[in-house]
Prior knowledge:
This protein is of the alpha+beta class.
Amino acid sequence: MTERFILKFLSPETGCSAHELCFEAAPSVIANIMGMTVDEVMGYAHYPDDRELTAISAAIGVSLPRWPHDVELTRPHLIDTAPYLVHTNFELPLMLDGRKPFAVVSGEDDFHPLINLRACFSPYVERGEIIARIAEMQAGGRTFIRIYYALPGEDWRFDAYDVLMNGPRPWTADMEWQLGSILGYSDEQNEWWIANGFKPAPPKPSA
């Protein structure tokens, strides 16, 4: 049985896909190439090296472009079915184009993709074209960071995001709509997401 995978050839300038290749393969074949379990290769994004890319190319019978930058191996997601461009992994170019006012990224401080993304944003932050705020958290002996990015005049979204994310639970459709608005999605896009992608929190069992 085969499953769909996506290879994303990442731009060093923006950290997002310069181009992508969708292919089908048996998960066990890809897992063997990557030296992982099937569950691992199906559940997470990975960054194959040149040897692994060559093996994937041979396994699927497709020549891959020579790409001296990072390549991400991932699986299709619900966001790929949206009738609009979901901002995930396209934050920087959308902000530079004025189409996205605010973004949040997070992860361990030494997480390779996060380091690369910060490097892409850095020149624009230094020039004042994008405003940044960094929050650091410690958990289990590891350091996690959350980075907020906003266009000038949109930094009110930093606090609006924190108020929403630290608010009462369970998470509701109205909260999901508010989050979409803070991130810069239109009412029409929020409406589609609530109808097609949002999953409300399950009710708490009665005592």
